[in-house]
Every structure is written in structure tokens, then in C-alpha cells.
Amino acid sequence: MEPSALAVLIVDENRARATIIEEGLREAGHERVRVVAAMNGLVREIEQFRPDVIVVDLENPNRDRLEQFFQVSRTVQRPIAMFVDRSDAASMEAAISAGVSAYVVDGLKKERVKAILDMAVLRFHAYSRLERELHEARSELADRKIVEKAKGILMQRRGLSEEESYRLLRQTAMNEKRKLVEIARSIVTAADLFGGEVKR
Questions:
Q1: In sequence order, what are the residues at sequence separation of 6 or more whose Cβ sits closer than 8 angstroms to the Cβ of residue 67?
Q2: Nearest Cα to 73, choosing from 4, 133, 138, 11?
Q3: DSSP assignment of 35-67, as one string?
Q4: What stretches of 59-157 adopt beta strand conformation (E)?
Q5: For residues 2 and 186, what is the distance between their CA atoms, to the nearest angstrom?
Q6: Which site among 70, 124, 136, 162 is 20 to 30 Å from 150 CA-CA?
């Protein structure tokens, strides 16, 4: 997606500060920009406007305000660039843990907005990709464990070798047009029901 195609939602109660960000974005070629001043209804506003990135500017962030934004961050799954006038290590750590892609302290200058926005989007996509890969790896490992357990059950119940057990699982999956792990899961479930669990 080209930067000029990005839709940007600015969240700032101070209109003068929001204007600085808005001008910086428009000068950088971002035409779809909307400014929101109130926190009330923010998630609904995000769902309606469907921004590609959210820019949050907090003059004096306290723990409650930050937590509100962190809850929004977890809910909407969008890149978020957060500008704050002052901060501490705990607030910064909490922001990053909540998924804020760029956390900028005392750095609100019009000419810096585009670079920070681009970085927030890139970091968000990199983090999302890592999360997806981690989820896939965990899922693959869990599937492998189920297949190994099913093979163990077949080896014990049918007196088959490990290779023969795997071949039987694969052939059954092909015959039934199902995934191998689905067949394995059925065998493990049936063995559990009949008290024949095999630990691998």
C-alpha cells in the first residue's frame, strides 16, 4: 500500500496540537485524515472510519488515560503512533506491551510526523508477522504431538510399526478426504473415551 493511500485517525483533545499532526500528514500526501477529540466512542469511530494507522497525542498522560488507549490498541489491531509530552520507563514499557508501534516522547514536530508514522506501520506489520509465525509454529507442534500420540495408539492396539502406523493414518486421511491431524485427533479422542490413552 502506498503511503498516500493510508487513512489516518488522529486522537487529540487539543485541537491546536492535532492541527500540527494533521498538517504534517497532509503535506506528506495523506489525504484521508480525521481528527477525534473525545475518547468516548473511540472504538466505534475506528470501526466506521477504518484507519490504516492511529496517531495519539497526549499532553499529560496519566496511568488511567494510557490504560484506556492500551485497551483500544488491543481491541482494534491497528498500528498506533503515540506522542506524549513526558513519560517514564513503566509507561513506555506498558505502551509497547499493549501493541503501540511508536512511542515518541517530546517529539511533536510537523516534519517528523511522516517518518514516525511510516515506522509505526512497518513495526506493526513486522510484529503481526512474528505473532502469526509464532502461532503457526505452536499449532504445527501441537498437531505433530497429536499425530505421534495416534501412531503410538495404533502401534499398541494393532501391533504395527511406527512406519506402518503413519502409513495407515495417511491412507485413512486420503480415503476420507480429511487432514491427517484430524484422523489422528479422532483416534486419540476415541482412545481417551475408552480408557486406552497412550503417552508418547
A1: 94
A2: 11
A3: EE--STTHHHHHHHH--SEEEEEESS--HHHHH
A4: 80-84, 102-105
A5: 47
A6: 136
Beta strands in the chain (DSSP E): 7-11, 32-36, 53-58, 80-84, 102-105
pLDDT greater than 90 at residue 151: yes
Which residue do the cell numbers 516522547 mark?
Answer: 105
- Contacts of residue 44, defined as CB under 8 A and 6 or more positions apart, other chains included, come to none
Tally the C-alpha atoms within 13 A of residue 179's C-alpha that lie toward its C-beta.
Answer: 8
Give the whole-angstrom CA distance, residue 13 versus residue 15. Answer: 6
pLDDT at residue 152 tops 90: yes
How many residues appear in the chain? 200
* Angle 98-142-148 from CA coordinates, rounded to 5°: 170
For the stretch 121-145, pLDDT in tens is 777 777 778 778 888 899 999 999 9
Task: Enter the C-alpha cell of residue 150.
Answer: 495416534
For 64-88, b where at least 16 C-beta lie within 10 A, e where not — what string?
A: ebbeebbebbeebebbbbbbbeebe
Looking from the CA of 20 toward its CB, the CA atoms found within 13 Å total: 15
Q: Find, among 80, 38, 77, the residue nearest to 56 by Cα.
A: 80
